[in-house]
Specification:
The chain is an alpha+beta fold. It has six helices and six strands.
């Protein structure tokens, strides 16, 4: 009996290690590919601050400040601060570029698993409210792609950025999508919880 339990534990451990290895390989391929996400954090969860977050978002998207892969952070803060002031608030904004953790996000025709991604983050005031995010590059939240759907041009761009296997994973093409995607999603979420000590 002990031998059977030992074998079962070894098989379980082996399966977990394989899943972890696959997850790390895929998230490294996807998040290190050049995908850049846009993240806007509201000052708080008050109705006013949440509305203001969306006003800042709309103003920045309409001004097309994200058309370049390396947008001007000072210009973004200047525009955000103007909207904040016009709405009677006395806090300011901060824009930064870095790697940040994102939960799984499903768009119209692609899904990005949880993990750390390169992102441009716009923090309004204390940045303690609910946030809004999208993919800045290749564009998934601008112009014709505002619903979060890859058009043909953006899809071709993404195909060039990703390996065939990782593109198939995020687009759900030619892969057993649910088990493969779930493996990456669950492992990345567990890893983030472990880092936070939850």
């Amino acid at each position: 009996m002990k031998r059977k339990i030992g074998i079962l534990l070894l098989l379980t451990l082996g399966c977990m290690l394989m899943c972890a290895g696959y997850s790390e390989k895929m998230i490294s391929s996807i998040s290190g590919s050049g995908i850049v996400r846009l993240h806007i954090l509201a000052n708080s969860n008050s109705a006013e601050d949440q509305k203001l977050k969306l006003k800042v978002r709309d103003s920045l998207l309409l001004a097309d400040v994200f058309k370049e892969k390396e947008p001007d952070l000072a210009q973004i803060c200047e525009m955000a601060d103007k909207i904040i002031k016009e709405n009677g608030k006395n806090y300011t904004s901060k824009a930064e570029r870095g790697r940040f953790y994102f939960p799984t996000k499903r768009y119209e025709n692609i899904s990005l698993p949880a993990g750390e991604y390169e992102a441009l983050r716009v923090v309004l005031g204390e940045g303690k409210g609910e946030n809004w995010w999208c993919v800045m590059y290749p564009p998934l939240c601008f112009g014709k792609n505002a619903r979060g759907e890859l058009d043909e041009k953006s899809e071709e761009e993404l195909k060039k950025m990703l390996t065939e296997e990782s593109f198939n994973l995020v687009s759900g093409k030619e892969i057993r999508f649910v088990p493969a995607f779930k493996t990456v999603e669950i492992w990345q979420e567990l890893k983030e919880k472990f880092k936070k000590g939850v």
